[in-house]
Amino acid sequence: MKRLQLAAGHDLAWRETGGGPPLVLLHGWSMSSAVFSEMLPLLGAEQQVLAPDLRGHGASGPGGGYALDDFAADLEEWLLALGHSAIDLLGWSLGGQVAIRLATAGRIQVRRLLLVATTARFVAAADWQHGLPEGQVRVMARDLRRAYAKTQGDFFQLQFAGEVISRQRLREIVAFAVRGGGLPAPEVALVALETLRGGDLRVELPRLACPVLVQQGEGDRITLPGAAKALAAACRQSRLVLQPGVGHAPFLSTPQASAALWREFLQ
């Protein structure tokens, strides 16, 4: 892991491999860059791949807030310190929302954007049927306070619900993706979940000027497939890939196919 101390005083940690044009991978809620451990060697032959830990996650230090703007500001400072003002960018789940905010903020030029299991709005509303019921998210927050480790374990299992995936493969994923980076502190997970609950990026999608790949598992029970369709429809230049039999983490369920899809889009 590499580290950079940011102006606010906390460290940002990241994994890095390869050389060439930079590709930045952003992980999801309560995970870390360890979730991309299999993908880095699959992508690093053609690009410099950088996978940061969002503040308060993995090996990155905690910060004063966990809003999308807070995560994006850390990434801007880090990228500019490394001399990367133009990047390719991939975000998964919460990382996809951070990626949208980073791409529309203007200081970093995003050449191509890959959004994996990403939604513009996590919870349902009167004008948005593609989200989870707000009550379900509130129950999850309550359960995190009562039984943190168990609730995180249940959420992990939900990412693969309905898939045909072996127990051995699930054990492998837990070993590198969860234990490899660790869980955030409960207070960080709760505040970041609140960021998901209250966020709405729909008005920002038409401002994405770069080509966008939207990758979505048709069996996803966390980010609903309808949200991916709406996201792709709202972007100027988009390609939607729906994967049957796949849940919330396509690159964990189908790593080789996902890497091939990503490489093809990035070429």
Which characteristics define this entry?
eight-stranded mixed β-sheet; 10 helices; alpha/beta; Rossmann fold; 267 residues; globular
Structural commentary:
- This protein has 267 residues and is α/β, with parallel strands linked by helices.
- The protein has a single domain (2-266), classed as 3-Layer(aba) Sandwich (Rossmann fold), CATH 3.40.50.
- The protein is 40% helix and 18% strand.
- It has 10 helices and 8 strands.
- It has helices at residues 39-43, 68-81, 94-105, 134-146, 148-158, 167-178, 186-198, 225-234, 250-253, 255-266; strands at 2-5, 11-17, 22-26, 48-52, 86-92, 109-116, 212-217, 238-243.
- Strands 1-2-4-3-5-6-7-8 form an 8-stranded mixed beta sheet, with helices on both faces.
- Helix 2 (68-81) crosses helix 3 (94-105), helix 4 packs across helix 5 (148-158) and helix 4 (134-146) runs antiparallel to helix 7 (186-198).
- The longest helix has 14 residues, at 68-81.
- The chain is globular.
- 43% of the residues are buried.
- The mean pLDDT is 97.
Fraction in helix: 25-40%
Uncertain stretches of 5 or more adjacent residues: none
Find the CATH topology.
Rossmann fold
Summarize model confidence as the mean pLDDT.
Answer: 97
CATH class call: Alpha Beta
Strand percentage, roughly? 15-25%
Please tell me the total number of domains: 1
- The number of distinct β-strands equals 8
Secondary-structure element string: EEEHEHEHEHHHHEHEHH
- DSSP helical segment count: 10
Structural class: alpha/beta
The separation of the N and C termini measures 27 Å
The CATH architecture name reads 3-Layer(aba) Sandwich
Q: Name the overall outline.
A: globular
Strand order of the biggest β-sheet: 1-2-4-3-5-6-7-8
Oligomer: single chain
CATH superfamily: Alpha/Beta hydrolase fold, catalytic domain
